[in-house]
């Protein structure tokens, strides 16, 4: 096979590997996809010490290598969290298996999972601060209150994993000319 075919195979294998790891992390796959990982690593190393003359192929290969390395770091971090029992998708399942068997087990997540991270009044204030910060940075302020609430809600697992049941507060900060909403422990 030539370089273009190898790079296409590498890209296809990487995409399949990403899907398999996500399925593994969700619990749909019982085993980590180690064989596929080895095959993709072999393809990644194949042209590591070879100069690819075609600029387009060289760029594509290097882009795939950096994407693969980024995902590998992400997967290693998630695997480490799983081993330590701190991976948020596994917490409910682990708690369910560690309870003594004293009757039927509930199938819904714990009640704290439904506790709102931020109240409606706090969301309104955060929204006003966020829009003001975007305007001050010269960015478009076409963001709705619901978009801010949804963004905070998407961060719930990370916030609960980091701070647990401790009360948190949100603030708007500008980093690199871009406003962001950050959570911290309430003082």
Number of strands: 2
- From N to C, what is the helix and strand string? HHHHHHHEE
Unreliable parts: 111-115
Rounded to the nearest angstrom, the distance between the terminal CA atoms is: 62 Å
Query: Strands across the major sheet, in which order?
Result: 1-2
Number of domains: 2
Q: Strand pairing plus helix content: what structural class?
A: mainly alpha
Strand content: 5-15%
Largest β-sheet summary: 2 strands, antiparallel
Helix content: 55-70%
User: Number of helical runs?
Assistant: 7
Round the Cα radius of gyration to an integer and report it.
22 Å
> What is the residue-mean pLDDT, rounded to a whole number?
81
Anisotropy-based shape: flat
What does this structure look like?
By secondary structure, the chain is mainly alpha-helical. Helix content is 60%, strand content 9%. The chain has helices at residues 3-26, 34-46, 55-84, 88-98, 120-136, 145-154, 156-163, and strands at 168-175, 178-185. The protein has a two-stranded antiparallel sheet. α1 runs antiparallel to α2 (34-46) and α1 runs parallel beside α3. The model is unreliable at 111-115 (pLDDT under 50).
Features:
187 residues, mainly alpha, 2 domains, 7 helices, 2 strands, 60% helix, flat
Could you outline the blueprint of secondary structure elements for this entry?
Blueprint: H1 3-26, H2 34-46, H3 55-84, H4 88-98, H5 120-136, H6 145-154, H7 156-163, E1 168-175, E2 178-185
Antiparallel strand pairs: 1-2
Tell me briefly what this model is.
This protein folds into two domains: 3-97; 115-185, no CATH class. 60% of the residues lie in helices and 9% in strands. The protein is built from seven helices and two strands.
């Amino acid at each position: 096979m030539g370089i273009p075919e190898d790079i296409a195979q590498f890209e296809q294998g990487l995409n399949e590997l990403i899907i398999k790891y996500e399925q593994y992390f969700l619990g749909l796959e019982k085993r980590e996809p180690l064989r596929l990982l080895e095959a993709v690593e072999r393809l990644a190393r194949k042209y590591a010490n070879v100069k690819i003359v075609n600029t387009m192929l060289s760029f594509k290969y290097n882009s795939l290598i950096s994407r693969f390395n980024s995902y590998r770091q992400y997967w290693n971090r998630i695997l480490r969290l799983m081993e330590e029992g701190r991976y948020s998708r596994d917490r409910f399942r682990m708690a369910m298996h560690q309870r003594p068997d004293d009757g039927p087990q509930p199938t819904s997540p714990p009640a704290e999972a439904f506790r709102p991270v931020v109240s409606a009044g706090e969301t309104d204030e955060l929204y006003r601060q966020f829009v003001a910060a975007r305007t001050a940075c010269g960015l478009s302020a076409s963001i709705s209150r619901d978009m801010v609430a949804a963004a905070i809600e998407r961060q719930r697992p990370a916030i609960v994993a980091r701070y647990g049941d401790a009360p948190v507060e949100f603030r708007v900060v500008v980093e690199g000319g871009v406003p962001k909403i950050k959570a911290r422990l309430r003082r």
